[in-house]
From TrEMBL:
GO terms under biological process: mitochondrial L-ornithine transmembrane transport
Family: Belongs to the mitochondrial carrier (TC 2.A.29) family.
Organism: Mixia osmundae (strain CBS 9802 / IAM 14324 / JCM 22182 / KY 12970)
Primary localization: mitochondrion
Name of the protein this chain belongs to: Mitochondrial carrier
Annotated Gene Ontology cellular component terms: mitochondrial membrane
Lineage start: Eukaryota, Fungi, Dikarya, Basidiomycota, Pucciniomycotina
Membrane topology: Multi-pass membrane protein
Family annotation (SUPFAM superfamilies): Mitochondrial carrier
Length: 372
């Protein structure tokens, strides 16, 4: 074992667990502030009732409708719970992952020199990452339940508005077109003014919607304390498999950069001492972006099923008025919308996962370098 690899292994083993919690929490919070509008769009796409025409034609349409109807603030609806969730998720992920890696090293010693040289123990990474994801899922499910319900509240509010009230200026123009006594300019002015008034009224009603704590109390009152873990199966599948892909992709890409740099050192005759802590921010960003895309590409249908289960009551349930289990909900989505329905929102989710995950690993890595 080289001095560099020995020092890195010793530092990882001696680092207090609270630092993993602190670094993970900070990184998770920063990434969530960036990605929340994209997550809101994903949840709304996943939560459309199965027995009605789809409200949104795709991510761009959902984003546009949300912004036009609810304003910029609407894109951050329900942010409080995701912030807590991101802190809890990343703290648990990095804590359990690093602690499990240390445990596995003590039981099944691996070649630390090879790992530091860019040849990590894949088996240990997968086991540790899977355990980390499984642990995080139990913290995440109650938080995501409330988050998803807050994110679809506006859709429920809009569906409960009087049917006689047109939804936009365009619909009002179409109605006024049937009234020849009104001049076109006047019709447009009246239509625009009424549409603005409706939008203001809509946003005022939205401000009175229940918050996270009220929704949590309602869920407990209706379904007991266990009701907060509605959708746990989907979260468990997603987090276990997704976290394994997340950490593995990061380690594999990081190892590529480490091996490349060590080869350069060998050519110049210098001792190959480059390790993961020596990676530059742009290298951490690329490794983190790869991790984010891998995480969301694995088991995405499980996330779609989870979101549908968690927003069933808010969205009315449609013809499937009685809540169903994980497998049956998946069958219902597939029967109604095919495989596309199980991947609703996948494109925008994978696209935003790249920069979001890059933020997590860069910030975590920089904090690790600064404070150990």
């Amino acid at each position: 074992m080289t001095a560099a690899s020995s020092d890195e292994a010793t530092a990882a083993a001696s680092r207090p667990a609270w630092r993993d919690i602190a670094y993970g929490s900070a990184a998770g919070m920063a990434s969530k502030l960036f990605e929340h509008p994209f997550d809101l769009v994903k949840v709304r796409l996943q939560s459309q009732p199965l027995d009605r025409p789809q409200r949104f034609t795709g991510p761009v349409d959902c984003f546009t409708q949300t912004f036009m109807r609810e304003g910029a603030k609407g894109l951050y609806r329900g942010l409080s719970m995701p912030l807590i969730g991101a802190m809890a998720e990343n703290a648990a992920l990095f804590l359990v992952y690093n602690q499990t890696r240390q445990l596995l090293r003590s039981v099944y010693p691996c070649d630390e020199a090879a790992a530091a040289a860019g040849h990590p123990p894949i088996g240990q990474i997968l086991v540790a990452a899977g355990c980390a994801g499984a642990a995080a899922s139990f913290l995440l499910t109650p938080i995501e339940l409330i988050k998803c319900r807050m994110q679809v509240q506006m859709l429920t509010l809009e569906s409960n508005m009087p049917a006689s009230a047109p939804a936009s200026a365009q619909s009002r123009l179409a109605t006024n077109a049937l009234k020849p006594k009104v001049a076109p300019a006047a019709a447009f002015s009246t239509s625009t003014a009424q549409a603005k008034a409706e939008t203001m009224s809509f946003r005022a009603r939205a401000a009175e919607l229940p918050g996270a704590l009220v929704l949590a109390r309602q869920q407990i009152a209706q379904k007991g304390f266990r009701g907060l873990w509605l959708g746990q199966t989907g979260t468990l599948f997603r987090e276990t498999g997704g976290s394994a892909a997340w950490f593995l992709a990061f380690e594999v890409v990081s190892s590529y950069f480490i091996r490349a740099r060590r080869r350069q050192q060998a050519v110049t005759g210098a001792e190959p001492t480059f390790t993961r802590r020596d990676l530059k921010p742009w290298q951490l960003m690329l490794a983190g972006a790869s991790a984010g895309m891998s995480y969301n590409a694995i088991l995405f249908p499980a996330d779609s099923i989870k979101s549908a289960m968690q927003t069933h009551d808010e969205m009315g349930g449609g013809t499937h008025s009685k809540p169903t289990g994980f497998l049956q909900t998946g069958r219902n989505i597939y029967a109604s919308r095919g495989i596309k329905g199980l991947y609703s929102g996948a494109g925008i989710t994978i696209a935003r996962a790249a920069p979001s995950s890059a933020i997590i690993f860069v910030l975590y890595g920089e904090l690790e370098k600064l404070f150990g």
